[in-house]
Design a protein that fits this description.
3 domains, 15 helices, Rossmann fold, eight-stranded mixed β-sheet
Length: about 400
């Protein structure tokens, strides 16, 4: 991975320099405004510093270690004593070791004796078990490292697990940082590299982008109860108020009268036209009616991912748009939904259209691991995140740095 900093008189200029240097594979890790210091600084304009990275898959492996830190220190929880039961629950469960032990009666007497002697693993046993977990019981490389590095990796493992990051993705990250686990590397170096790996996995937010001279048609899809209509109003307000764009609304959600009236209320407040359609045949006529708008927001009916009929209706609606229009699809899901349910949802909507992700209700959960899980599972880019009901305030472009810091034990 190559990491560098670029400066410019504006954020856009600094990002442009980064992309000129690294190409389309550049990942923007941090954007910082640098304000002039001193008395005469009030007469000068701010400059911007962009930290960008190129994934090692796009280049030859670097020879040195690059020490790039998060903007602020990320405190990790203190290492607590781990008893036999909790340690096995965290590590041995994944490897199905308990089942294997039960198949070996010759070791039961020994296990019983050990249980009588102590219920706490020795530090060496705990660290060796962690090494075995990370290495898949194939390459005991980590056993040669000193105890401090392994303790720190165990803390990272537990912290990510506590934040509901899936074990599969935790193991992948730990395997990638193995080469940094050697004497002389501080814990900050290890933490910084985990931070980089997580930033790269989330990638850059994929927001709504307009094409000059073309009407943008944006479909919002998702299950019931995730706040889809409110999310549309928040994003539309940003385009109308902050970007001075012409907007319009179309709703195909005629299953719920309340949804139609809710969107109509927002349309009236924003002084924007709105159409209600009852079939896919009416879609293009409604778009043509509002083609003077820069962006048209299309609300669709929420439905269970198990409902094949409604799934087919939404698929036909999106597929029926004239090819002359520039369309995008955003799948709205709740951050409070269980991982297995989220997987079923993204699988179902993946059969409807290619989409970007919007996460809602971040204010209703304290664990953000599912954001990373679903990003990696689906391969879809994340765009926006909401954290409340207030329109238009409680929404922002997905802040990768903030979420990664929380996953590593920091505070949002």
């Amino acid at each position: 991975m190559t990491i560098n900093k670029f400066t410019g008189n504006s954020k856009e200029e600094a990002i442009k320099k980064a992309k000129e240097a690294f190409g389309s594979s550049a990942v923007i890790m941090n954007v910082k405004e640098i304000k002039p210091k001193g008395f005469f600084g009030i007469f000068k304009s701010s400059t911007y510093e962009v930290t960008a990275a190129m994934d090692e898959k796009q280049q030859a492996r670097p020879t040195g270690i690059i020490d790039i830190r998060a903007d602020e220190k990320i405190p990790l929880p203190p290492l607590k004593p781990v008893n036999q039961v909790s340690f096995e629950a965290a590590f041995d469960k994944k490897m199905d070791l308990n089942e294997e032990k039960n198949k070996k009666p010759e070791t039961s007497e020994k296990s019983s004796d050990e249980a009588k002697n102590t219920k706490v693993f020795s530090e060496k046993e705990r660290l060796d078990s962690l090494a075995a977990m990370v290495e898949g019981f194939e390459k005991p490389v980590l056993k040669s490292q000193n105890g401090d590095e392994l303790k720190f990796v165990r803390i990272l493992y537990r912290t990510l697990l506590d934040n509901d990051v899936n074990e599969k993705y935790i193991n992948q990250i730990l395997e990638e940082i193995e080469r940094f686990l050697r004497p002389g590397n501080s814990m900050d170096v290890i933490l910084s590299n985990v931070y980089q790996k997580l930033i790269l996995r989330f990638g850059q937010p994929d927001t709504i982008k307009l094409t000059p001279g073309k009407t943008k048609v944006v479909f919002f899809v998702g299950p019931t109860g995730v706040g889809k209509t409110t999310t549309i109003a928040k994003i539309a307000s940003k385009f109308k108020v902050e970007h001075d764009k012409k907007i319009a609304f179309i709703t195909a959600d005629t299953y719920r009268i309340a949804a139609t009236e809710q969107l109509r209320t927002y349309a009236n407040i924003l002084d924007a036209p709105m159409s209600v359609i009852y079939s896919k045949e009416e879609l293009n006529d409604a778009i043509e009616k509002h083609e003077q708008a820069d962006v048209i927001f299309v609300d669709t009916a929420g439905f269970s991912h198990k409902n094949e009929e409604q799934k087919s209706d939404i698929k036909n609606l999106i597929a029926g748009i004239e090819p002359d229009y520039d369309k995008s699809v955003y799948l709205v899901v709740s951050a409070t939904t269980k991982y297995n349910d989220l997987k079923a949802i993204v699988d179902a909507y993946g059969k409807i259209a290619e989409y970007k992700l919007i996460f809602t209700k971040l204010d209703e959960t304290s664990s953000y691991g599912n954001l990373l899980n679903i990003k990696l599972y689906s391969g879809a880019n994340i765009s926006y995140a909401t954290d409340g009901q207030n329109v238009p305030d409680d929404i922002e472009i997905f802040d990768t740095q903030k979420i990664v810091k929380q996953l590593l034990g920091g505070r949002i």
